User: Fold this.
Amino acid sequence: MPIHFKSPADASFICTDKVASIIIKAIGKNNINKGIITVDEVSNVIKSLEEEIKKEKKNEGVSFSVRVFPLIKMLKKANFSDDFVLWERL
Assistant:
């Protein structure tokens, strides 16, 4: 089932379970069905994802940085406007 990420700060996006589980694990959360990145957590999550991108090894296929780009964009807009980001299984 797809996972829907949304925030009042940006347009929502949908990704597959597989991609969402990688992203959610990378931000230190563990519930793929439903969760939130609070206003207070947003800046630390951005830093955490950017660190993961720096550690990324080059391999075949779609890179982590490409997969996480929509979320980083959403988080940066949420950070600017003091908003949250949430996700839920569709």
